[in-house]
Amino acid sequence: MNLPHLLLDIDGVLIPFPNTDQQGPPTHVRHLVVPTGHNPTQPVPIWLNPRHETLINNLLDTHQLHPVWCTSWRHDANTHIGPRIGLPDLDVIDLPRTAITTSHPNGYLWKRDHVTRWAADDPLAWIDDDFTLLDHEWAAHRTATTAPTLLIQPDPHIGLTPEHLDRVLTWVAGIPVQGHVNQAATRPMNATPQQREVRPAA
Ligand SMILES: [Mg+2]
User: How far is ligand 1, taken at its centre, from the CA of residue 9, in Å?
Assistant: First the structure.
């Protein structure tokens, strides 16, 4: 069995939605970026939380998950987003550029059919702010029939919190890996790097 995947969305997860004054939350720092295809004279404001560097890297340092971007930022995630919060280059799910006017053209998240094909029978934890009831039903069915599947849905005006990543760790700790329960993944996300050091199971 492949390592469980961790699918990361960006808008509404790492970049919270601005408030009515077009400001991000005070926990986040404003940046200006020029996504691929945008006019360089019209950069886009985004807000990123510097604390996410430690939170996410602590999770990645457990080596219990295969992190991958699953976002309409596509490869821009590795050039415009990840480096600004100290994340390494991650794999990217090549989502198509489809002409849709809603993120739920069939009542569920537009990314889901691509994820289903991409992940095949692998376990996955997926953090996205835009799931519908049909997506949660899909995850329950996939867990029952195919592989453990966890959906985590942040409030898009708040974004990713330590509690979300703790839920991922708790989930992955319950997935048997090579016959062992995943003990190394049970330490909380706010632990220091030393506390989080992963040692092989005895
Ligand atoms: Mg989103």
Answer: 6
> Within a domain: residue 41?
no
b/e sequence 169-196, b meaning 16+ C-beta within 10 Å: bebbbebebeeeebebbebebeeeeeeb
> The pTM is what?
0.87
Phi-psi region of 67 (alpha: psi -120 to 50; beta: other; left: phi over 0): beta
| Amino acid letter for position 21 | D
Ligand 1: distance of its center to the CA of 201 in Å?
Answer: 37
Q: What is the CATH number of the domain that holds 164?
A: 3.40.50
Q: How far does Cα 116 stand from its chain's mean position?
A: 16
CA of 197 to the centre of ligand 1 (A): 31
Overall number of domains in the chain:
1
| Six-digit token string for 65 | 């998950």
Residue type, 7: L
Q: Which domain holds residue 86?
A: 5-20+49-186
Chain segment 158-177, per-residue pLDDT in tens: 999 999 999 999 999 999 76
- Centre of ligand 1 to C-alpha 10, Å, is 6
Cβ < 5 A residues, ion ligand 1: 9, 11-12, 129-130
146 falls within a domain: yes
